[in-house]
Structure formats: structure tokens, C-alpha cells
Design brief:
Elements (H helix, E strand, L loop, with lengths): L1 E7 L3 E7 L5 E8 L6 H19 L6 E8 L2 E2 L4 E5 L4 E5 H9 L3 E6 H12 L8 E6 L3 E7 L2 E2 L31 H4 L1 H14 L4 H9 L6 H7 L3 H25 L3 E5 L7 H14 L10 E4 L5 H9 L5
Parallel strand pairs: 1-4, 4-8, 9-12, 12-13
Antiparallel strand pairs: 1-2, 2-3, 5-6, 6-7, 9-10, 10-11
Helix pairs in contact: 1-2, 3-10, 5-8, 6-7, 7-8, 8-9
Length: about 325
């Protein structure tokens, strides 16, 4: 038997048929085309599922379950209680999928949780039962797996590590709080920190790099650091401290086997990961323990959420 994993994003809808070895056999996709009604969006989700099955050369009768990852909060009844990006408010996603796909088992979960599940079972987690995934993107996304299960909390909104505070009364965060990890460790925050440093250092190499690229990006300060630029090095050093501070908190709270870090900034590889590991090694509470949390780069990219969604039926 096979399962289908769906990644419902603000830009694209992607569905894939996945086998029991976590291999993707067929994929269908279509633009999300927001803003639209839930009914129209779910018509296209069903279309993507059928396209995936056609490419994989399987029938619906071969599918054991369908899982979907979505932005926002999803409850245990399969209702998307709220998704700001999709403009969903108490959308009965399970019912809408059943109407379009027939009597197949349907599972829904937050997209960051699906990505964590995919990495834990099929990616860099190598089957870890205690695992945390962190994505450094527009915000700081996260998913927590404990004893092989997704941590979602009493209200299915758990695991939002990006909205834990690391600087009391610090930078404002989009969530309404001040000093959140997301306000310091996201790619958005890094770009803001880079621009601030450029304004204070008009002779920094960062100006030349940004002009050549046509914009300030998450790479600008790292590229400047590699050229020996002092201001760029300071931005990178401070950013790594912010990222590491939040990771130490996760280690101290959960003591997972593995923490994986994803997002475009992870393309820096060991330039980012080695100083993070060094910082965490010095600051963690478990400094005397023989077994320590491994900090690694995410492996599955965009497929993490799809594979994780396909796995939802098997971990219930």
C-alpha cells in the first residue's frame, strides 16, 4: 500500500504518492492562486492528488491514507481553525477532502510539524524518536517529535519555539510579543541586522556585495565576513549567538537526539553549524552527559513536509 502526502502552501499545492520506504513515486502540483475560497482550493488539492496517482500508476484503492500539512492551527477533528496566509477560519478540511477523494483515511497537521516528522523518520533524523526541526526562514518555524509523536499541545498549537523570548523587552515580533527568538534568528532578522550594520558602517564591503546582488540578503554578511570585513563578521557572530541561544533552550527542555536546522541560511553549511555546535556545547545544562544532542543540517528540503504528511496515518 501507498500513502499520499500533501503540502498546502501559500504559493503552491503539491501532492505526492509515497511508498513504505519513504520514496516519492509520483507528484502533482498546481498554484494555490490566493485569495480563493476553500472549496476552490480543495478542488485543486484533489486535482494534484489525482495527478500524483496517475504519475505513480496507482489507484485510490491502493492508497492507505492521505495526509496534509497546512499553515496554521489544525485540530484533531481535521478542522483548520485558523490560517492567516490562506484566510481560513474553521475550515473542515477533512470533510472537504473526503467529498473529493472518497472514503479514504484523511489526516491533517501543521506544515512545520509535518516537515519535522519527515526529517525525523526519512531524513537527517535517521529514525530518531526524539527530534526537533527548526527552519530559519521568513520566521522561525519548528516542529517537535517526542517518543515518535508530534507535540501539538492541548489546543493543537504547540511547538511554536520561534515565539519563545530570548531578549526581554527586545525587538518587536509579528506575533505581538517583544524579544522573540524569531525576531532575532529568522532570515528576516538577519537581513535587518545586516542593513543596520551597513548604515553604521558606510565603508563596509557589505555595500559592494549588496549592490552586485541587487539586494541585501541572508548571504550578504557571510560573504563580507569571508572577505575579512569587520562589520560583516560582527553581524554573523551576533546572529549565530541569537540562533544558538534558542537552540540551547531547546536542548535543555527536550534533550532530543537530533536537532535539524533548515532554511536557506543553512546553505552556509559548517560556516554556520560549527560555531553553533561550539556555543551549544558550552551553554547546555547537560554538559557532563555522555549522550549529547546532535545538531545537523536538514536533508529533505521541500520534500520533508510531503513525506511527513504521508506518514501521518502510520504514527497514529
Amino acid at each position: 500500500m501507498y500513502s499520499i502526502g500533501i503540502d498546502l502552501g501559500g504559493t503552491n499545492i503539491v501532492a505526492s504518492v509515497v511508498n513504505d520506504k519513504y520514496e516519492i513515486l509520483g507528484t502533482g502540483s498546481t498554484p494555490t492562486n490566493l485569495p480563493r475560497s476553500a472549496e476552490e482550493i480543495f478542488d485543486d488539492i484533489a486535482y494534484a492528488c489525482r495527478a500524483a496517482m496517475e504519475e505513480a500508476k496507482v489507484e485510490l484503492s491502493d492508497i492507505s491514507s492521505v495526509g496534509m500539512g497546512t499553515p496554521g492551527t489544525v485540530n484533531s477533528e481535521g478542522i483548520i481553525e485558523f490560517s492567516n496566509n490562506l484566510k481560513f477560519d474553521h475550515v473542515d478540511a477533512r470533510a472537504l477532502l473526503k467529498e473529493r477523494l472518497g472514503e479514504v483515511e484523511i489526516y491533517l497537521e501543521n506544515d512545520a510539524n509535518c516537515a519535522a516528522l519527515g526529517e525525523a523518520y526519512a531524513g537527517c533524523g535517521c529514525g530518531s524518536k526524539n527530534f526537533v526541526a527548526v527552519t530559519l526562514g521568513t520566521g522561525v518555524g519548528s516542529g517537535i517529535i517526542l517518543n515518535g509523536k508530534i507535540v501539538s499541545g492541548v489546543n493543537c498549537a504547540g511547538g511554536e519555539c520561534g515565539h519563545t523570548v530570548i531578549v526581554l523587552d527586545g525587538e518587536p515580533c509579528n506575533c505581538g510579543r517583544n524579544g522573540c527568538w524569531e525576531a532575532y534568528a529568522s532570515a528576516t532578522a538577519l537581513i535587518r541586522q545586516t542593513k543596520d550594520a551597513m548604515n553604521k558602517n558606510p565603508n563596509s564591503v557589505m555595500h559592494e556585495i549588496a549592490k552586485a546582488e541587487g539586494k541585501v540578503s541572508g548571504r550578504t554578511a557571510f560573504d563580507a565576513m569571508r572577505k575579512g570585513d569587520k562589520a560583516g563578521s560582527e553581524v554573523v557572530d551576533n546572529y549565530i549567538k541569537y540562533v544558538s541561544c534558542g537552540l540551547v533552550n531547546l536542548v535543555n527542555i527536550f534533550q532530543p537526539e537530533v536537532i535539524c536546522i533548515g532554511g536557506g541560511i543553512c546553505n552556509e553549511g559548517e560556516t554556520l553549524l560549527k560555531p553553533i555546535r561550539d556555543y551549544v556545547a558550552k551553554e547546555r545544562y547537560s554538559v557532563h552527559s555522555k549522550i549529547q544532542t546532535k545538531i545537523v543540517k536538514a536533508e529533505l528540503g521541500n520534500n520533508a513536509g510531503i513525506i511527513g504528511a504521508a506518514l501521518l496515518g502510520s504514527i497514529q
